[in-house]
User: Fold these one by one.
Assistant:
Number 1:
Amino acid sequence: MSATTASAAPARAPRRLPAPPALRLVRASGSRATRVPFLGIAAALLTLGLIAVLVLNITLSQGSYTVHDLREKSATLADTRTALDQDLNTVSSAPHLAQQAAQLGLVPAGSPAFIDPATGKVSGVAKPAGAEGDFTVVTGSAALAPAGAVAPSLASATTSVAGLGLGGGLLGALASLPR
Amino acid sequence: MSSGRSTRRRGRTGPHAHPVRRVRAMFIASMFVLSIFAAQLVRIQGFDADKVAATALAQRLYDKPIPALRGQITDASGTVLAQSVERYTIVADQLSVQKYTKKANGKNTQVGARGAADDLAPLLGLNADDLFLKLNGSKRYWKVAVDVTPVVWRSVSKLAVPGISVERTTKRVYPSGPFDASLVGVMNNADVPVAGVELMADEALRGTPGSERYETSATGRQIPTGNSDYVAPVPGRDVRLTIDSDLQLYAQNELAKAVTERNALSGTAVVMDVKTAQLLAVANYPTFDPNNLANAPTGSTLANKAFQEAFEPGSTAKVLSLSAALQEGLITPSTPITVPSELKKLDKTFKDSEEHGVEELTATGVLAKSSNMGTIIASDGLRQNAKILRYFTDFGLGRTSGIGFPAESAGQIPKTLHDTNQYTIMFGQGLSVNAVQAASVYQTIANGGVRVAPSLVAGEAAADGTYTPVKAPAQQQVLRGDVAHEMSEMLESVTGDDGTASKVRVPGYRIAGKTGTADRYVDKRAVDGKPGYEGYTASFIGYAPAGNPRFVIAVMLQRPLNGHYGGLTAGPVFTSVMRYALGKYGVPPDTAPAPNFPVWQPGYSADHPNGAPLPALMGPSAARNTTTSAGTGAAATKSPSPTPSTDATRR
């Protein structure tokens, strides 16, 4: 193997070529003068490119800051909107409206009378507002259950029938779960 | 092998050993090492691959459920009755909180838990000292505040206190509180619906929770390039009820006052639209506060008795037997019916609520005076082939409404006619109904004999806003139109001057309705602890305007102690709620005068009490088809009645 490798070198045979033309010196004139502008341009391009990338990066990061701020603002506004919606639902609920109206001294409308525009006939019996007596909204624990008004003699009947109000067994038992 | 040894020897003798052998030796050495690697690789990647990968992934993977936002429950006009809101639980890593630093006068100072407590307390609305106790310590996980709104959490997170994090939760809010609680229901502390529409429509409301699964680093941060899997949650659908929350409030409020004033055990009031049979209000008292379940007062209940409690209806069920008698041609509104002072059937003696002598009533009078004996006589023919039971079924008794309300009671009707129940069911004892079924009977009569199945849900709205109304409820012609009309006119006599509900009036409107004062069946009587009858169920069910009915209202008071007649106790609630409903909906008054069917037979005068009418008017009267045993009651011997409810007070 090594013998084969060693004998490989002399395999190349010298070739005879036609005689070349006589060599002569060529003047390399002006080569030093043309390199400066090229380097200048290259450096300038490099600098400009770097500056451009820098500017681009700054702009992009500035943009992402803006996006971040706006996202934050949008999320805050969405949260505020949800909170306001919820407040609105609470204050526009019927019990709240009724209580507010009662506090302001408003009373339910009395029974209305109706006028038929075609015949001019009046039907119904109109009564002024408040004629039906005071309207109060039951609130607090009285809105949930009467305050211990069960007569003692019937207390046991109460328990058996309604399970002390927790009627329906399963459903009632769940009422006592802490929340 | 020999070449390997020679290489080594040559290598030792000098740096310029045979290169080929050296390469070969290194090749073999590295192949040896690599084959060990390869074997290990095959073991890990091949044989144990699944196990190892799974262990590694399990260490990195984090599953985060994303709860779906539960749908709203609204009334018919869109007023929110129940909604879910996003809330946060603030959690502290107490060790990290110690590192809280603030920049003061240009330099950072470590203020720790004390400083954090001072900063967070005003935002969370907590006492700074209490908060300090929660933030100070060495626990890595400690709940600091619950039910924090997103707005507050946002301002808290801006402080960037180390070790403060949140967990997202949802909270169910009920803006109307107790006023429609028994209907809307509630979620328990484990976010499971336990009653009402919350439970009934849970499938629509709850939505499908999503999930987020991603790989985390050792410090718990998400690995940006790791596996991640996100399934968006599908929010629940909004459920729109047929309820009018204003009417609901009014009915609930009036009922609460009446139950308290009459010292009753409980009460229900049902308002139903006559044409559509949609429930406009379902009030129950006592009830509960869904926003404050933990502090429920004694007697507070989750039950919705309008659906869940079956009771013996008593006289309000006389319309069933008398309507059936009208349709079967047994009576007309003016059929004379002579009612004896007592009536013996089988071994029972029936009486009316008030002692009276022989009364010469019309069929209308039987209803207006709420005569038990008169009803037995008038509807006697309905016992043949148990015809009455078919009417009960047609009117919707003995089966649930189809609404699907949780724990709804179907009530009970007898399967066969036997013993005395064949007489008592004619006047509403020996069968049981719930309040919605009772209202439905009157809806049928008010709607020209067409029973429409009651409904509570109007439709569902998906998260994208598409609204799907429920399909129209089933309708059935139970009574002929003319029969329903006659019955309606007869019912107007109840609120007439001679009726049992002469105080139930709304000026300008004609009211058709019926009082009920039934014996109340209990499992355990206070007297002897045995099952039997004790106390009364007082009720009034009716509709207005009688000429062109709009609303059916059924009011029931269970075991009122302060007065017990239906007209007296339940009547005022009916009047008040009906007046409000008619006014709110701008229902034009009745223009035609009331029909005014005669209550007494021609020539008979009620001014002769205790059965002493003129001799000329005595004797067997011609109650058409129905007088088979009417006259036999007078000679009856009174026997002690082991079965209750035969001789008790009913009107």
Note: The CA atoms of residues 116 and 176 of chain A lie 56 Å apart.
Number 2:
Amino acid sequence: MNKRSKLARAMTDLAMRLVSSLAALVGILALSWIIYEVLDRGAGAMSLAFFTRLPTPPGIGGGGVANALVGTLAMVLLGGVIGVPIGMFAGVYLAEFGQKTRFGDYVRFATNVMMGIPSIIVGLFVYTLLVVSLGHFSGFAGAVSLAIIMIPIVARTTEDMLLLVPNPLRESALALGAPRWKVIVEILFRAAKAGLITGVILAIARVSGETAPLLFTALNSPFWMKSLGQPTANLTVTIFNYAMSPYRDWQKTAWGASLIIMAAVLFLNIVTRLTLREARK
Amino acid sequence: MERKQANHNRADAVFRLATGLCASMVFVIMLGILFELYRNSRLSIGQFGFRFLLSSAWNPVTDDFGALSSIFGTLVSTLIAMVLAVPLSLVIALFLVELAPPALSRPVGYAIELLAAIPSIIYGMWGLFVFAPFMSGYVQPALSDSFGFLPLFSGPPMGIGMLSAGIILALMILPYISAVMREVFSMVPAVVKESAFGMGATTWEVTYKVTVRYGLRGLLGASFLGLGRAIGETMAVTFVIGNDHRLGLSLFSPGNTIASTLANEFAEASAPIYLSSLMELGLILFLITFLIQMLAQVWLHRLQKGTGRA
């Protein structure tokens, strides 16, 4: 050890303990500050009309974001319908067939890269693929970009969860003569159920707050959604457009929409965590 | 019986093929993004060539575009975020793993993780309406009073700008970095730490001289992951960075990042060369994040091999 006095060393230790406790406090304070402001400012916009009516022009009160709520739900749902099965199957391949194969390694690499790609890039990609070629923005394109973001997340959690299932379970099922696909679908999926559901819900929570991939795909709309084949209203792009507007009542609406999104996302996160803990018991 | 076996085999082959196809889709999408971005930026690449990377022009009227101010803004805001987030994550991980009693460590760790769950656009709202006024009202005046002689902290305190964007980015990547760092910390064998304690080392000395050295590569990998997140972060930055294409030395000055420029201007761009320049910006961002991810993966992969963990 060096020759510094015991006291100086003890003081450094104490100082660093303080610093690290303070840092943790900073993190908690930041979280509480954000949650508090969104609750406080968003609560002012809450009313029945907010959930049931169309948006109004600035200056005319009484409007809502009902169309955006429906649009977001529809796109997240369709995104999930497309993305979850593909992601799960990809995860099954990685865990059950692609261990230690070169193709499996490539896919695993691509999955990790795709998880780190900025979501706005996905938006650009889907724009060139589905908006330019079809000639118009659409909720369908928005759902596809959300699906593309979900696929790698679901694939990774599926792989992780299936790998947690002990091998003797696979072996005994196969020894009984069950075909591979049956073993996976009926036994492994069942054994890993809690983890798989958690992964899917977290992926859904993640994309329901996404804005960037919807900016050039779903765009936004002041009207009710008639089909996903046209520009579709959604909460996150509404927040962006309204927050950037100079009108006070639109900004208030943006806070209200932020509150809905934040509450939904945090709710999904906390609930999945609690259920997972239950399942582990 | 044999027939049943044949059916089984066929069903298995179909199942395996289906999962393989889904798996290859991930790969195909990745290549598809690269191809589409390149295809759509050919116009801009052809017209501006390498000058695109070095020119700070951004003029939709005269159709003259360059990526320099966006690349500069992306790097500066990310640098601020990293400078703040890496040490902060390190001491938070230290707190959670070594110092806090379990009863405290679990809820605190969970709160930090929740920071990652909050959508980017919420950070943007908070940043624009709450944090930027706080910065211009308190933090920036104090900084220019003390360090105003430095060009870094000169200029009017507007709240929005590089510094605010960097700080918010730091908050956003902090949970990702600290989560990996926590894992790295708990990977260090207890025996190694205990022997240092046995020599009479204090907690901080054990952390600094043993844990950090032992897990250095993992800590670097964690920072890499945070870097990848910060560089492509879009909405929060778009709200607070000010979206200015001029290059400014001051951290108070507004700027733009690649992602914020795309978010702001893409839907409005009508001229083909304008669109193509934006696509090329996207291509640059994709290549940067791709490179970072690749390095992080190779790095962490080697790390796992080195410590004998699968």
Note: Chain A touches chain B through 87 residues (CB under 8 Å).
